[in-house]
Specification:
- With 767 residues, the protein is α+β, with helices and mostly antiparallel strands.
- The strands form 6 sheets. The protein has a 6-stranded antiparallel β-sheet. Strands 2-1-5-4-3 form a 5-stranded antiparallel β-sheet, with helices on both faces.
- The protein folds into 5 domains: 13-130, 2-Layer Sandwich (Beta-Lactamase); 146-304, Beta-Lactamase (2-Layer Sandwich); 326-476, Reverse transcriptase/Diguanylate cyclase domain (Alpha-Beta Plaits); 506-646, endopeptidase fold (from Nostoc punctiforme), CATH 3.90.1720; 661-764, Cupredoxins -  blue copper proteins (Immunoglobulin-like), CATH 2.60.40.420.
- The chain is 34% helix and 27% strand.
């Protein structure tokens, strides 16, 4: 029911309000306006003025034309109800356009206090409040609240996705899960996941691409991620190809980029800030699970891979073999290759284990390049490599083995380019029906035969068996009575002696030949300190268990003289290379060649020389033999000084001593030489030092020889001299008799107290 209007005395509107001028100003400033629709009079508020309109423009209902189109119908309907008398009050909001074109939101309240007889409002009081700023703040709050709500929802979805993602430890499966879970959070047409290794992007998973498009060939601006500081998501707009928007999001681990997830869209400018933010959150959370899978895979690979050679471990070999056995028919063929590096221990002893590691890596690389991807291999032992060739017969296996052997033989090492490395390979071919351990054992047996037959070769197991059977078969063809007659007539005592002597000589020569090209060895720490006698002594000890003296002079004194024309392989040639005494030795190989340890610039190492060598040939002073016709050691010399009857050139006779004197030469250079071995000696023997000055200038040197003790204060000085040696010259010191057991040390120092040579003797009682 419509309320009755208030009846106020009829006075002009201005008169009514002018009675309280302060009230009028106050009301206008607070948004109050007054209208008389009967006369058209109006008292505007300041908001109308702020909107840029005059009183005339706001007269009657002209203000309705400035209402926002979306609010016009609703506002007009309420206003007409007031004007028509259907209602005396109205409250609502509408947007009105200012003269500048900006819409402002007003909260409007209207009240009709007086009407005419025709219900025309005579006193229409309204109140406008500009709530534009408040509305904008509320809208911002709403947007922020909605954003928080969506973020909370996305966080929960991302958490669920991460939980699912963490159920796998395989990087490829994890990458596929990342794309699938991302599709539940983001809109995109295609996606990829990559990992980065040394600035190379490796594709792990892809989704959404057509069959005609290979995601591996899509260029990725990898530099943007690997450059310092550029670790934020990047948006690209390719000008070619089916995708016009690309969003790349890095996958981080401890501030390091390990990979990226890329989203592709066909529309240009497809990815907005909200999607980028979601992608960042997803990458941060899912990236943890993904990098865990990567770390697990790396740990698994490290456990299954030999850290040095990069080959699988034995455990990994058998694990893959077990999987292969499940997929392989029992009658399929296989070949096993057992590979061993020849003289690997000698390489380690002479060049150090670091160089030995380099050799192992080189051989392993040669093996990797020779076999196929479906073959399996491992580092089987210290220097042994095992390869299983799936489906390979003997011919294929031998081809692969020879390829490996030749490749290894051609290897060069920058640390020691003069070193030549070879391998021996045993081969066994069978089927998967046979126990694999038996196959490996047979390949190992073939390897043993390869080493026994001279090394640097490939031996088939079946071939070795056939050779043994052939020898037995030939022996059985001889009639039994012929064998009896031969046994009765043949002088086996001569054969035994000849065989023993020949076997010793063959062993000595073959052992020496193994070390061709090997440089510093047997106690020598530098070319200047190369020990030629040590090399010869080592060969004799290794090949024939014969202990030789450690000096050329002692070898000359003790060995049995032999004319050069009658010398045999394994005999020792003695040379005068220092001027005045025996100072170099070599082993005779055959009638024209010798092998010896040489220290002459580029010729430094174990070399093979001819007997007419321009340097060593003229310096030969004699031949010494330590092997008798029966293979025993000749301990007593036949002559101590070769005379004319020996028909050998003699530069100077050896110095005789009543007691055995071990003469050793030392060279003082500008670099220290510390020997790691201990020279064995017996009580009652003597040592004599020959010191050479190879520093390039004249010098004064200190010689200190003392008996060592755990308590340094109890060390006993045997000799302490200061000697002057011209550059390039040598000096021979008086012999020292070793009268007590224990360890003795020689130290050679410069006048400025710089140590240049250090060596130790271990003296024991004579047996």
């Amino acid at each position: 029911m419509m309320s009755k209007p208030l009846h106020i005395k009829k006075l002009p509107l201005k008169q009514k309000t002018l009675k309280s001028p302060h009230l009028l100003t106050l009301l206008k400033g607070t948004g109050v306006f007054v209208k008389n629709y009967e006369t058209g009079e109006a008292i505007p508020n300041t908001i109308w003025k702020n909107l840029g309109y005059t009183d005339r423009e706001m007269k009657y209902d002209t203000w309705l034309q400035f209402i926002h189109p979306e609010d016009l119908e609703r506002t007009t309907a309420f206003h007409r109800r007031l004007i028509s008398g259907e209602s005396d009050h109205w409250e609502g909001e509408y947007r009105i356009k200012s003269r500048s074109g900006e819409y402002r939101t007003l909260r409007h309240r209207a009240l009709v206090l007086e009407r005419s007889d025709k219900q025309i409002p005579r006193l229409y009081v309204g109140w406008d409040v500009d709530i534009t700023d408040l509305i904008m703040e509320l809208e911002a709050y709403k947007k922020q609240a909605e954003q928080y709500r969506r973020l909370l929802q996305r966080s929960e979805e991302i958490r669920n996705a991460t939980t699912i993602l963490s159920t796998t430890l395989d990087p490829h499966e994890a990458a596929e899960q990342m794309i699938y879970q991302a599709s539940r959070l983001l809109n995109f047409d295609a996606a990829t996941v990559r990992i980065y290794e040394e600035d190379e992007a490796i594709l792990l998973a892809a989704s959404g691409f057509s069959s005609q498009m290979d995601p591996k060939h899509i260029p990725i601006p990898l530099g943007n991620f690997t450059s310092k500081g550029l670790i934020t998501p990047q948006v690209f707009t390719p000008v070619t190809g089916p995708y016009r928007s690309v969003l790349l999001v890095p996958i981080m681990r401890k501030n390091t980029i390990v990979g990226s997830i890329e989203f592709y869209a066909k529309d240009q400018n497809f990815f907005n800030q909200e999607q980028i933010g979601t992608a960042i959150l997803f990458s941060e959370e899912a990236g943890v699970a993904f990098t865990n899978a990567l770390r697990y895979k790396i740990s698994e690979q490290e456990a299954a891979t030999d850290w040095l050679t990069g080959l699988p471990t034995r455990r990994a070999f058998h694990a893959r073999l077990n999987r292969m056995l499940l997929e392989t028919k029992p009658d399929e063929s296989l070949s096993v290759l057992m590979i061993d590096i020849d003289h690997f221990k000698t390489i380690n002893d002479n060049y150090g284990h670091l160089f030995g590691d380099s050799v192992l890596v080189g051989v392993a690389t040669a093996c990797k390049e020779a076999f196929r991807s479906h073959d399996i291999s491992c580092r089987y032992g210290g220097d042994e490599i095992l390869i299983l060739l799936h489906g390979a017969d003997e011919k294929i296996a031998l081809t692969v083995a020879e390829r490996i052997r030749e490749h290894v033989q051609n290897l060069t090492f920058k640390e020691h380019p003069e070193v030549s490395v070879t391998v021996s390979i045993g081969i066994y071919t069978s089927t998967y029906q046979q126990d694999i351990q038996e196959s490996i054992a047979c390949a190992d047996e073939a390897l043993y035969r390869a080493k026994e037959s001279g090394r640097n070769r490939c031996i088939l197991y079946n071939e070795g068996i056939a050779m043994q059977n052939y020898s037995v078969w030939r022996f059985r063809l001889v009639p039994r009575f012929h064998i009896t007659l031969l046994l009765f007539l043949f002088p086996f005592h001569l054969l035994s002696a000849l065989d023993t002597s020949r076997a010793l000589r063959t062993a000595i020569v073959s052992t020496a030949m193994k070390y061709t090209g090997v440089p510093y060895m047997y106690g020598a720490a530098s070319p200047a300190a190369f020990d030629c006698s040590g090399f010869v002594g080592f060969v004799y000890r290794e090949a024939a268990q014969i202990t030789l003296p450690r000096s050329s002079r002692q070898i000359w004194l003790i060995g049995a003289p032999v004319p050069l024309a009658k010398a045999q392989p394994g005999d020792i040639l003695v040379f005068d290379t220092a001027g005045g005494f025996p100072s170099h030795v070599a082993l005779l190989i055959d009638t024209t060649r010798m092998i010896h340890a040489v220290s002459q610039g580029p010729r430094t190492g174990v070399l093979i020389s001819t007997l007419n060598d321009t340097y060593f040939g003229p310096r030969l002073i004699g031949v010494r033999s330590f092997i008798s016709d029966t293979g025993t050691v000749k301990k007593e010399p036949e002559k101590t000084n070769p005379g004319p009857a020996s028909q050998e050139p003699v530069s100077q006779g050896p110095v005789k001593h009543e007691i055995p004197i071990d003469t050793i030469s030392f060279s003082i250079t500008n670099e220290p030489v510390i020997y790691t071995d201990k020279i064995p000696a017996q009580v009652g023997s003597g040592v004599q030092f020959i010191v050479s000055n190879n520093t390039g200038k004249d010098g004064i040197f200190e010689v200190l020889f003392y008996k060592m003790d755990l308590d340094p204060s109890k060390s006993k000085t045997i000799r302490q001299d200061r000697i002057s040696i011209k550059a390039g010259s040598s000096i021979e010191l008086d012999p020292i008799i070793l009268t007590e057991t224990g360890q003795y040390k020689l130290i050679l120092k410069t006048s400025s107290n710089l140590k240049r040579v250090e060596r130790v003797w271990k003296v024991v009682n004579a047996k």
